[in-house]
Amino acid sequence: MKYAVIIPDGAADYKCEGLGGKTPLDVAKKPCLDSLASRALCGTVSNVPSDMVPESDTANLAILSYDPKIYSKGRSPLEAVSMGIEMKPDETAFRCNVVTLDGDPAGGYDNLRLIDHSADEISTPEAAELIKAVEAELGRDGLTFYPGVSYRHCLIWRDAPDFRNFSRPHDIIGQCIADKLPPEPFVSMYRRSYEILKDHPVNLARIGRGLKPANSIWLWSPGKKPALPDFKEKWCVSGSVISAVDLLKGIGLCAGMTPVNVEGATGNIHTNFEGKAQAAIDEFKRGQDFVYIHVEAPDECGHRAELENKVRSIELIDEKVICPIYEYLRSTGEDFKILVLPDHPTPICRRTHTGEPVPFMLYSSADEREGVTCFNEDNCEAAGFYVEHGYTLLSHMIEK
Ligand SMILES: [Zn+2]
């Protein structure tokens, strides 16, 4: 038996005025998915407990059968693990942005304004040099800054102070930082980073090119590594995770699964859809039983409120991901199951994640049944099968 789980991230939505009162899943032309859904078990599933924030880590942990109430520790440790950092139980990972602060330095650090959480999406090599400079001054035994991609970096701190209430830099753009700063010892690190970075040659060159300098660190989302039970031991299947997102790779690694890198997998509508499908097929061919394919494009369109692109991204996932994987599995002659569901809705009108139940369809080549004619929110709800705890959904798919 082979198992494919395909996640069109954020595809679920509300009824949209721009679509004549329909949802993107309603209007998207997705012949392969609809054909499978017409012969599948269809229903809805709640991936995000009602008292939790619908973050990507929460929803995807649930789909992979890990109760987010127990195992969700925030995104930073998962990103750290995906960067190849081996975290120990007494270490805390912090997301470390390099941000742009603006204002007169003579007025004091605390009176500057945060004007860009990404420093004009600074290039990875430039940011790496800046993080190296910060590490040289602020790093010490048990406290290490690791360079990541663009403005997204990582601080690993052994026995870190237990403060969690950091301001998220993307939430305070344009604001004075005076009342957004964390307590000591964090705030002193911020102030020193500004001294290190504000006249750094990399930043002077950026200013010369008309770009914003990355002149301060900004920490948020601290967390310890989640101790996920090994996926293979839990389900007796070997698994791989295919995603452009560090978070998903991190969950896979923490669960003992194999993360697969796909060239050109960006997460947006220009992502390498074919490459993801081919990577999934290659994983099956080399003997993996379970492949988790996460495609972020519909979520990104939801955040950007791009209605047409959201519909198009669902169509592309059908044509270039679901169809080739289905055709491959069918061609092998072996029994297989395909599970398709968004992790959470990212409604166009909200431009952010919401926590409602999402539609799912579970197709089994050995057990075709009457499903729904169009895979969408209403039809799957009307099908009447509701899974209250998302982390139990996989038990309907995998027979141990
Ligand atoms: Zn999202």
Helical segment tally?
A: 14
Broad structural category:
alpha/beta
Task: State the distance separating the first and last CA atoms.
Answer: 11 Å
Q: Looking across the biggest beta sheet, what order are the strands in?
A: 9-8-10-1-11-12-2-13
CATH homologous superfamily (4th level) name of the largest domain: Alkaline Phosphatase, subunit A
Biggest sheet, open or closed, and with what strands and sense? Answer: 8 strands, mixed
CATH architecture level-2 label of the largest domain: 3-Layer(aba) Sandwich
CATH fold-level assignment of the largest domain:
Alkaline Phosphatase, subunit A
- Spans of 5+ residues with little confidence (pLDDT < 50)? none
What is the 3D shape? globular
SSE string, helix = H, strand = E? EHHEHHHEEHEEHHEHEHEHEHHEEHE
What is the number of independent domains?
Answer: 2
Mean pLDDT: 95
Bound molecules: zinc ion
CATH first level of the largest domain: which class? Alpha Beta
**Radius of gyration of CA atoms, rounded to a whole number:** 22 Å
Quaternary state of the chains: single chain
- Strand tally is 13
Helix content: 25-40%
Strand content: 15-25%
List the helices and strands and how they pair.
Elements: E1 2-8, H1 24-27, H2 31-37, E2 41-45, H3 56-63, H4 68-71, H5 75-82, E3 91-102, E4 113-116, H6 124-138, E5 143-149, E6 152-158, H7 186-197, H8 201-208, E7 216-223, H9 231-235, E8 239-242, H10 246-254, E9 258-260, H11 273-285, E10 290-295, H12 297-304, H13 307-332, E11 336-340, E12 358-364, H14 377-382, E13 386-387
Parallel strand pairs: 1-10, 1-11, 2-13, 8-9, 8-10
Antiparallel strand pairs: 2-12, 3-4, 3-6, 3-7, 5-6, 11-12
The chain binds zinc ion (ZN).
Zinc ion binds next to helix 12.
